Amino acid sequence: RHTHGWGAPPKFGAAAMSAGRAKMKKVNWGQPITDYRIAIPRDYYFAGETVQGTLELKTHGPISCRGVRVKLEGVGMCHWHYYEGAGEHRRRVDVHGEKKYNGCQKTAWGSTYNTGRIDNAGDDAVWGHPTTPDEGHVDMPLQTAHGSKVVLRVMDYDWGKKDDELGECLLDVDELLSMNGADVTVPLWRHVGKGMFSSGTYGPAEGDASNGVKNRSVVVLSCELSESEGGFGFQQGARRVVFKVMSAHNLRDADSMMGFRGYNDVYCQLYEVSGEDLAPGLPLPGPPDTSAMQLPPTRASIPFSFRLPRNLPSSMEPLDVFAEPVDRASVRYCIYSHIDIAWRMDPSCRRIISVINGPSSTIPKLLAPLRSVPQEKEVHPVNCESLCFCCSKDCVGQLCGENKSVSLGKVFLDCHMDRRGYAPGETMFLSGIARNETDRPVMVYVSLVRTIVYTAKDGFTHKTRTARGEIPLASFEVPAHSTWQLEDGQLICPAIASDYFGGYGYDEEFASRNTQYGARYSERLVDPVKWSTKLMVLMDVPDTPFNLKQFMDVLITGLPGNPIVWEEYQHKRKGAAQMPALPGAQEMTPQGSGDDIGVSVLGTAECPTWTPGAEDEQVRGDTLCIARTDEISAADPQEDIKCDPAELTYSPAVAVYKPAAPRKCRSPYKPDNPEVDCTMNPPGSKMICPYTGMPFVVPPPPPPQAQVINTVAAPSMSMV
């Protein structure tokens, strides 16, 4: 479990990015590799954006391999243990939960270039599922500038044996490019029959008979010139193209056996062929033999690109109080590449990235005001007596209860928020009334309560653990016999990751498309880490545990609601979706389990230290800051055994809206010096004094100006 505090001084800017670069140690894995790393322009991306970069590969000798692969992968996981039994029968039980949010793999260099595989596709395979939007895209280098021919094969993946061919076709690249990206339906061909019963003839590929009729197998695709340039083996005058495979229909069942129907696991295989190898009426030439392939000595930059799905949860690293119930937990994303060598350890490299998700906080469904049910309570003295065995400063009526025969007056609380959705750095407007009819002052505390639910699989059941922590925002005192009234009090939303509690939430377009495609297997898995946020207003009546609490389900989003900022930022970020989706809409209720931790509050969580740097986005006078916390080691002990763990670190990023008018505070070490800018450091977090280099806690801003009305008459003591 990560044990760093959220208030430790982090690294920012170029230093943080260079430290997180996934560059390999100078070891050769038994191969002549000098350098192998992933280069991307930045290490943070918004859900819906396109991640583009290059594989930097330098070798000083040939390598026999089947290709170079690159994959974008997101993994949410949690792990904890408990003990059962006693004495010599006492044993440790480990439970683990894991879910992959995106596992699209592409070929950066090889004999064939493949689409993503669709498991259990059956007769019809459709690529472009919302959770893997570019699984059917193949960015492929061609050796010729004109007259290129490419063979496309639709294949059925079989574990442990050779894959089955479902059909093939020959693509004229120039003809496809002339259609300006329009979809084309191409019929498939194959050998009629296989094995000892094969007639040896080559003819149209057809699906299984339906109502006595066999339909022709077809594939739907389009072709465009690639925006990427260069790559390994890229020659002067050559070109790169992108094949976008949409679907394949009427495929034969290659996995049926003894009358039992199977389900094809379908992918497409593409490779370039020479016109000299083509003969009319004969089968198309097969792909090059991978056993004879060699990666020659080279120094190359191989381009790649991945489109991030819109439903991804933000990168999450639970710290401090939130990590107490588990041994380790995280939601992490990385770009992973390896050189595919048969029967050898694959040389690999990894680059960790931060993903920021959540819509603009001003979409219509988040603009509805929030109001909680008004609460009123009559206050009674505690029933403790001086000679009571339980009477202590920690009891305060917990065991003895209240003496309801005596009334000390009533307390009343009614609060509401201007809207539901807020992004880090935005102003939260709180209004309400707190009435105190007792003869003692009471305190009103406002805080955000974040709940994280961990779910892991233990055998055939799921176990859950829950952690909650408070992030204080403000506090007020209501004098005796007074009414506290507040109109649009300003609070600052702290810089925390956007909420995620499963599902698709407020992105109706994404949910509709997902319904059309159907849920993939990975979507049906339980999310191992989910989190949500509530705004809590607590009216603390002294010397009694019976206080008033109001909770409002706020939603922490990924991007600020300033429409100008959002519109301009999207315009600058080419490839970003029109609106990243907020994942989650259903109620996040932990499943019942004997291993639940039923805690209400495990402690108070400090906000991380945020510091604006060179990554600030200046937009019409406002700043959208990419803020970071402590560096976290993300080395995988199994996958990264050849990596330097110190180089596999990253700083989780959060987009914070920085208003034009900064917030300032005075350093406690130099109170006479000018005030320092603390706009990006929420109250309660730590920042470094620019005058002394010493850390200090950012004081809360001046409390919202509440009107205190001393018109409540003192109640008379009465016996009931």
Could you write a compact summary of the structure shown?
The protein is mainly beta and 720 residues long. The longest helix has 10 residues, at 508-517.
Give a structural overview:
By secondary structure, this protein is mostly beta strands. 4% of the residues lie in helices and 40% in strands. The strands form 13 sheets. Strands 22, 23, 24, 26, 29 and 43 form a six-stranded antiparallel beta sheet that branches. A five-stranded mixed beta sheet has the order 2-21-20-5-6, with no helix packed on it. Strands 8, 9, 12, 15 and 16 form a five-stranded antiparallel beta sheet that branches. The longest helix is centred in the last third of the chain and has 10 residues, at 508-517. The radius of gyration is 31 Å and the shape is elongated. The two termini are 55 Å apart. Residues 1-27, 386-399, 573-614 and 711-720 have low confidence and may be disordered.
Overall 3D shape: elongated
What can be said about the biggest beta sheet?
A: 6 strands, antiparallel
* Structural class estimated from helices and strands: mainly beta
Helix content: under 10%
The radius of gyration is 31 Å
Oligomer: single chain
Q: What is the overall number of helices?
A: 4
Strand content: 35-45%
Number of strands: 43
**First-to-last CA distance:** 55 Å
Instruction: Return the average pLDDT rounded to an integer.
Output: 75
Low-confidence blocks of residues? 1-27, 386-399, 573-614, 711-720
